[in-house]
């Protein structure tokens, strides 16, 4: 006969297990999750009979006996796979417990090591304290001996006077003032350079202006910059500095209360003294065209007399004075002479350029080589 649990409204253990088996094997309704085996569901399956405590004890034994894992079973896996997953979960939990135990044991071991190190440090400190106590006892005995032997004269050194706070503040302000003073000077110099540039731009664009108009025309960022260096740029302050610039000749001038750019143009240099005129009149200079007519005619005469020559030989063998006289017009060079002769050949003048680069005269020179502008050359 099955053993009953509880009192008059008791249920048997086997009834609880049977109810749990029925819930476990029951298929869920369509679209509904599978019903779990719990104390509440088992009691409902038994017709709300029995106490929760009695049913809970039997359900706990049933879960352990059956290996009930509701989460795995809800996945609908094959039975063999469910068993493997269950075994794996159990093994994993066991590993977690082992690791947690090992970590706690390590903490305990570390605590023991720390306590041991603390004990060693404490022992060293106590030993050091013992040594100090021995030294103190020795010094006390020495002091007692010296007092017993007679008075001892000691020279007390005067204590160094600690600097007063007011003195420290004064020293700091002095050093800070020097550093800040240098910084302000450099900032002010840069600021007035900017003022000079802006004033010069306005005067060059608008002409002479009074100081109030100049002050109004200055850009706002420049006015703000003056405030940042603790020197507000007022019209009076601007006038003072502009007058200083006028006095130092810094490119400004004041005319009838208006400031304008100073005329920095230099006076034209004095003309050099005229050279002394020789008593003998100079030979009148002929035009460039007439000179080159005569020059080429002279080259023609040289070629007819000597024969074919290169342009270098022509310049060497021309009569004295011809090559030097070209400096009054355009100095003659071999390349320039070659160009002139080739142009004359195109003009059908009596010249010829030979294959070896030499030039030759092919006939008499047309004209009389006079200064007449109608000469054929």
Architecture overview:
By secondary structure, the protein is mostly helical. It folds into four domains: about 5-70, no CATH class; about 80-150; about 175-260, Orthogonal Bundle (Arc Repressor Mutant, subunit A), CATH 1.10.10; about 290-360, Arc Repressor Mutant, subunit A, CATH 1.10.10.10. About 60% of the residues lie in helices and about 5% in strands. The protein is built from 13 helices and six strands. Strands 1-2 form a two-stranded antiparallel ribbon. A two-stranded antiparallel ribbon has the order 3-4. Helix 2 (about 40-45) crosses helix 3. It is elongated, with a radius of gyration of 62 Å. Mean pLDDT is about 80; it is low at about 1-10, about 275-280 and about 370-375.
Labels describing this entry:
377 residues, mainly alpha, Arc Repressor Mutant, subunit A, 4 domains, two-stranded antiparallel sheet, 13 helices, 5% strand, disordered C terminus
Short description:
This protein is mainly alpha-helical and about 375 residues long. About 60% of the residues lie in helices and about 5% in strands.
Number of helices: 13
Computed structural class: mainly alpha
Strand content: under 5%
Identify low-pLDDT runs. Answer: 1-8, 277-281, 370-377
Please, how many domains?
4
Here the CATH topology of the largest domain equals Arc Repressor Mutant, subunit A
Strand order of the largest sheet: 1-2
Q: How is the biggest beta sheet arranged?
A: 2 strands, antiparallel
User: Globular, elongated, flat, extended or rod-shaped: what is the shape?
Assistant: elongated
The SSE string, one letter per element, is EEHHHHHHHHHEEHHHHEE
Helix content: 55-70%
Overall pLDDT confidence: 78
């Amino acid at each position: 006969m099955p053993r009953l649990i509880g009192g008059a409204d008791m249920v048997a253990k086997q009834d609880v297990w049977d109810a749990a088996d029925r819930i476990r094997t029951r298929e869920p309704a369509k679209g509904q999750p599978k019903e779990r085996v719990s104390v509440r569901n088992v009691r409902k399956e038994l017709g709300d009979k029995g106490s929760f405590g009695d049913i809970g004890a039997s359900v706990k034994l049933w879960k352990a006996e059956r290996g009930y894992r509701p989460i795995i079973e809800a996945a609908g896996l094959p039975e063999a796979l469910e068993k493997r997953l269950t075994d794996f979960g159990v093994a994993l939990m066991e590993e977690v417990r082992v690791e947690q135990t090992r970590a706690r044991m390590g903490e305990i071991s570390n605590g023991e090591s720390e306590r041991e190190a603390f004990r060693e440090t404490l022992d060293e400190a106590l030993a050091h304290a013992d040594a100090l106590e021995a030294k103190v006892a020795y010094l006390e005995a020495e002091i007692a001996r010296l007092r017993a032997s007679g008075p001892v004269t000691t020279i007390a050194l005067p204590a160094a006077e600690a600097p007063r706070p007011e003195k420290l503040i004064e020293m700091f302000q002095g050093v800070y003032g020097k550093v800040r003073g240098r910084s302000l000077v450099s900032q002010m110099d840069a600021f007035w350079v900017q003022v000079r540039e802006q004033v010069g731009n306005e005067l060059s664009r608008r002409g002479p202006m009074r100081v109030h108009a100049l002050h109004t025309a200055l850009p706002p960022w420049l006015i703000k910059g003056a405030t940042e260096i603790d020197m507000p740029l007022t019209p009076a302050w601007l006038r003072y500095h502009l007058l200083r610039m006028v006095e130092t000749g810094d490119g400004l001038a004041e005319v009838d209360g208006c400031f304008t750019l100073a005329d920095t143009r230099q006076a034209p240099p004095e003309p050099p003294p005229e050279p002394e005129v020789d008593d003998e009149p100079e030979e009148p200079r002929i035009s460039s065209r007439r000179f080159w007519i005569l020059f080429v005619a002279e080259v023609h005469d040289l070629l007819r007399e000597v024969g074919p020559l290169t342009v270098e030989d022509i310049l060497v063998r021309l009569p004295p004075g011809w090559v030097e006289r070209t400096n009054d017009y355009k100095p003659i060079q071999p390349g320039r002479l070659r160009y002139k002769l080739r142009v004359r050949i195109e003009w059908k003048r009596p010249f010829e350029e030979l294959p070896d680069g030499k030039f030759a005269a092919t006939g008499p020179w047309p004209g009389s080589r006079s200064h007449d502008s109608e000469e054929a050359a």
